[in-house]
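Hello again,

I reread your note about wanting to compare the complex against the isolated chains. To keep things tidy I'm splitting this into two emails, and this first one only covers the full assembly. Below are the input lines as submitted, including protein chains and any nucleic acid or small-molecule components. They are followed by the predicted structure of everything together. The single-chain runs will come separately.
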Amino acid sequence: MTKTRAELTELEGTILGVVRRGGPMTAYAVRSVFLSSVSAEWSGSAGAVYPAITRLVRAGFLKESAVHDGRRSKTYALTRSGIAANDSWICDIGRAAGAGQDPFRIRAALWSLLPASRRRAMAKALIEEMKKRQTAVTAGLQNRGDPDAIMDQLYCMLLEQRIGWIKEKFS
Amino acid sequence: MTKTRAELTELEGTILGVVRRGGPMTAYAVRSVFLSSVSAEWSGSAGAVYPAITRLVRAGFLKESAVHDGRRSKTYALTRSGIAANDSWICDIGRAAGAGQDPFRIRAALWSLLPASRRRAMAKALIEEMKKRQTAVTAGLQNRGDPDAIMDQLYCMLLEQRIGWIKEKFS
DNA sequence: GTGCCCATGTAATCTGTTACATGATTAG
DNA sequence: CTAATCATGTAACAGATTACATGGGCAC
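Full-complex prediction:
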């Protein structure tokens, strides 16, 4: 009886998704996706990714793939049960309907407490930052053969809606 | 020299915000806010809230308030520096512009991998769940003198946008 | 008086972060 | 050859979760 956790963490599920979409790849490549992504908010730290992959291998969801690149790298791919596990993870309605610990919403609820001048300054700076990120994401969408396309598109929509909301409320 | 962390965690900042808006209150009352909130996604676990409040007291951001309720409860309120700390936390542009580890976006990026029938079933169930949450949040907005109003409103907007997006993409 | 909610806390565990350590391979 | 990048990992630490432990006050 191997002790098995009931559900994948968000990081584990995301790693499976990245490998599934990106084809057989190394742990390092998975990290790079996180490190370079504008909208996937993980540090991509080795201390998280390597242990997570170890867990996924032990659980039988990832296996070392035959594909190698001449380096000393290990390349991973999803197993059958890895695909099944990822399927039910992406179909987890309860989690998909939530917004996580959204740092924008949590703050927005408190902005009314600020003095008007500071609130206006904050709104202006925030809109600028959001537009900058939209630009960065849009540029990324054009340059790449893009695995992150949908996530980035949704992030852009989110930013668009929020910029509108801030303008309406704090201007 | 007391060792002081540079920035508040999301939980710490949120606790300060809850106490600031809700007036002097007990740790238990803070937990109840998290436990009952549809849109603030924390477990409200004692093991997170009590230690966090202890840290905030030690940092000088919360103090035991004079207000008591006849029980053995301790009631907390923000200090001057607690208000200042919360102000700069809610004005943290870098974090406010992000969307956190949004469980919807991460999954949406992978739904194209599902067989069409399963995808349609998932889309239908998800829309239902989202509508249910909208109803719950809307009901809450009417019943209460509401501290969570803005956060819940933004959650509703988010759900509205996503329901539209799912319908457009997966129907 | 007994069950339920108020109220506070701790212990074990898990996951993720930062920072460090190491070495292979390739581009200039 | 040497610097940058590829590549893998560990150690110390922080923060959150679940589950447990405890006890006071109130309603029936």
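For quick reference: Chain B has a mean pLDDT of 88.

B.
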